[in-house]
Amino acid sequence: MPDDGTITAAQARDLAAWLHGDQTDFGGQPYLSHLDAVAANLGTDASDADRRTAYLHDTLEDVSVTDPDGSVRRLSPLELAGYGVPDDDIRVIALVTRDPDRERALPALEGESPRDRKDRAYFAKTRSIIDSGEPLHIRLRAIRLKKADNRHNSDPSRDRFLRPDQLPRAAALRRRYATNLALLDAGEAMLTGQAADPGHAIAMTVGFVPMPNRA
């Protein structure tokens, strides 16, 4: 561990393995295999900080803590900080963490299927990453992290671990992630000034109203 108390990427991997415990992915594989794949998807030039967030990106969403009174809650950002995770990393992780209460509160559209509503909530979460009030470097890190996550989640080679009855859901999720990756690409292009008409690109991707550039 560095002198300032910040954990390294390798220590973050160990921390994630401990926090996720015996959790598995959709196909029943150890959750750490997903985290390793996300870290690898960031590329060989990824910083130690980016690899830390790859290993810890699901901790605020999927790790439960039981308090002394028996109540169960999500792991908190403050607790992550106590493990030596820097503030910028926590802000990146918080940006990609889904909020079930907010998703449930999303009004359904007339004639919309439950799956389509879940997709719309997922895309809305991605738009909130792009258009958040966080500093530009935090948003870009979160976008690149989410792209690495989506690429592994949409990897068809993972189908070999699924039962036949799980394959239709896996196919539907791949379609969701393909759309979301296009949205993330459009958002990254907008934030880095590489899109000629970023609002239109985003609207065409998911059928939403274009959003302003607040970079």
What kind of assembly state do the chains in view correspond to? Answer: single chain
Cα shape: globular
Which band does the percent of strand residues land in?
Answer: under 5%
Nearest-integer average pLDDT: 90
Question: Helical segment tally?
Answer: 11
Enumerate the strands of the largest sheet in spatial order, edge to edge or round the barrel. Answer: 1-2
| Low-confidence segments | 207-215
Task: Note the gap between the termini.
Answer: 34 Å
The ordered string of helix (H) and strand (E) elements is HHHHEEHHHHHHH
Kindly name the structural category: mainly alpha
Number of domains: 2
Q: Characterize the biggest β-sheet.
A: 2 strands, antiparallel
For this entry, give a set of tags.
about 60% helix, about 220 residues, 2 domains, disordered C terminus
How would the blueprint of this fold be written?
Layout: H1 9-20, H2 31-41, H3 48-56, H4 59-62, E1 64-66, E2 72-74, H5 77-82, H6 87-96, H7 100-104, H8 114-130, H9 136-153, H10 167-191, H11 198-206
Antiparallel strand pairs: 1-2
Helix pairs in contact: 1-2, 1-3, 2-3, 2-9, 3-6, 6-9, 8-10, 9-10, 10-11
